[in-house]
């Protein structure tokens, strides 16, 4: 799983907010200063479909797109993937980096300790 590109991210926010949207509707709902070409949005949605981030169904001549996960589910899967990659590549240094980052926020550090204790007690 990879982080989304800038345009993919903006399009996914539209799809998560307005499930069942067409390419034209996504073009109209994109909220930034750039005017995107219809074909650019269509190509990006097709790429997101091939990556498994959106599903689509035919509606007349158009496709209607929906996220295959909610935004929260996507962010959780991405965080899980990134954390696993960091730990796989850097082992103890990765663990130390998580602890160092969490130690700047006592609530976050407490939550990290709570999650570790819970994982240890689960079979």
Overview features:
single chain; two-stranded antiparallel sheet; 123 residues; mainly alpha; 5 helices
SSE order, one letter for each helix or strand: HHHEEHH
Which band does the percent of strand residues land in? 5-15%
CATH topology group of the largest domain: Arc Repressor Mutant, subunit A
Number of strands: 2
The secondary-structure class comes to: mainly alpha
Poorly predicted sequence stretches spanning 5 or more consecutive residues:
none
Write down the CATH class of the largest domain: Mainly Alpha
What profile does the largest beta sheet have? 2 strands, antiparallel
Number of domains: 2
What is the helix tally?
Answer: 5
Mean pLDDT: 92
- Amino- and carboxy-terminal Cα gap: 28 Å
Strands side by side in the biggest sheet: 1-2
> Which homologous superfamily in CATH is the superfamily of the largest domain?
Winged helix-like DNA-binding domain superfamily/Winged helix DNA-binding domain
From the alpha-carbon coordinates, what is the Rg to the nearest angstrom?
A: 19 Å
Percentage of helical residues? 55-70%
CATH architecture identity of the largest domain: Orthogonal Bundle
Would you write up a description of this structure?
By secondary structure, this protein is mainly alpha-helical. It has two domains: 62 residues, Winged helix-like DNA-binding domain superfamily/Winged helix DNA-binding domain (Arc Repressor Mutant, subunit A), CATH 1.10.10.10; 51 residues. The protein has a two-stranded antiparallel sheet. β1 and β2 form a beta hairpin. The chain is elongated, with a radius of gyration of 19 Å.
